[in-house]
Design a protein that fits this description.
This protein has 336 residues and is an alpha+beta fold. The chain folds into three domains: 127 residues, no CATH class; 104 residues, Tetrahydropterin Synthase, Chain A (2-Layer Sandwich); 37 residues. It is built from 14 helices and four strands. Strands 1, 2, 3 and 4 form a four-stranded antiparallel sheet that branches. A hairpin with a 4-residue loop joins strand 2 and strand 3. Helix 4 packs parallel to helix 6 and helix 6 packs parallel to helix 8. The longest helix has 43 residues. It is elongated, with a radius of gyration of 51 Å. The protein starts with a helix and ends in a 6-residue tail after the last helix.
Length: 336
């Protein structure tokens, strides 16, 4: 008590300890003042909007490196639209890498359109990489998908009827997003591929191309009846054939190609037979030459055994000479 009285009366200098305490308290008050000034505008904005965002929550966001402005503005937007969202939910989604403003706008749009969409479902779709706002807008306002996609470089779906005539078709598919199947559902590419497959199948089952040209809606009905939107993130509302053009006569081209192939095969078979005949002829000539080479030996053997006389030999030579002369006379003279 005596020392405290002395300090009050100023008789003794204050200890260093009290000076340090005062300095720390001043620093703390200064930091608090800075934080209050920093977040005062957001806090007042949330307070007058009845968003129920405490100053401590704003400081906590700053310490956790959360964009407090994004969270506060998103919550104000949700509260003004009649949605009940907590600051903790929005902050958790932000920390998970989600797009908080996008989710809030999607929830508001779904609420206005009487679409059942919970905050958990919206955040799950957003974290899955899908644009939840675009999905809700597509669910309210259906979109049109071109089949095939012109961006892929192909303008038409080509198919051949049973009579061999090629048809080139363009289709427009009206789809609406299915929120419940948005997670894990197939994308637009799958819808385009399935519709293209259905068009090819329908045209291919047509007996003649004229029937398709006279009644193009039969393609739409056949394709739409196959339930092509199963397992996708969309619900197919309609399939409209925008254009059908006649292409090439594929059947005639195939027949001409088949005829050409048959002719080449026949030529190959004929060449094979000719080569076999030539080989057989050469073989027979070789046999003749071989047998003719044995004639002098046979004649010599006949002379030894006495079966052939000298006069017989000369008669044979005369016959050979006479035959050769007749052949030379019978052959026409060649012009030099």
């Amino acid at each position: 008590m005596l020392s405290l009285t002395n300090m009050i009366l100023g008789q003794n200098d204050p200890p260093i300890f009290y000076i340090v305490l005062v300095a720390i308290a001043a620093i703390i008050l200064f930091v608090i003042l800075i934080l209050v000034v920093k977040f005062a505008r957001l806090w007042l904005q949330a307070y007058f909007s009845r968003a129920d965002v405490r100053l401590s929550e704003l400081i906590g966001m700053w310490l956790r490196k959360v964009d407090s402005k994004t969270i506060v503005l998103s919550k104000i937007t949700a509260i003004q639209a009649g949605l009940k969202l907590t600051t903790k939910d929005l902050e958790s989604h932000y920390l998970a890498g989600g797009r908080v403003p996008n989710v809030v706008r999607a929830l508001i749009a779904a609420n206005r359109a009487n679409i059942a969409l919970s905050f958990q479902t919206a955040t799950a779709i957003d974290l899955a990489g899908r644009d939840i706002l675009d999905a809700v807008q597509t669910s309210v306002n259906p979109k049109v998908i071109d089949c095939p996609d012109p961006k892929k470089g192909k303008e038409t779906v080509d198919a051949v009827a049973q009579d061999g005539i090629q048809l080139k078709a363009k289709a427009r598919v009206t789809v609406r997003a299915n929120i419940q199947r948005l997670i894990g559902g197939a994308t637009e590419e799958t819808v385009i591929a399935r519709v293209g497959e259905g068009i090819v199948s329908t045209i291919g089952s047509s007996i003649t191309y004229k029937g398709v040209l006279e009644n193009p809606e039969r393609i739409s009905k056949a394709v739409l009846g196959k339930g092509l939107d199963a397992g996708t993130a969309f619900e197919i509302l309609s399939i409209d054939i925008a254009d059908v053009d006649v292409g090439d006569n594929v059947g005639a081209q195939l027949q001409a190609a088949q005829a050409e192939a048959d002719m080449r095969r026949a030529k190959a078979e004929a060449e094979k037979r000719r080569a076999m005949a030539v080989a057989r002829e050469q073989e027979m000539r070789a046999l003749v030459v071989e047998n003719e080479s044995k004639v002098p030996l046979a004649m010599a053997e006949a002379f030894k055994k006495g079966n052939l006389g000298v006069m017989d030999y000369y008669k044979m030579k005369n016959v050979i000479a006479d035959t050769s002369m007749r052949d030379s006379i019978a052959k026409p003279k060649t012009k030099e």
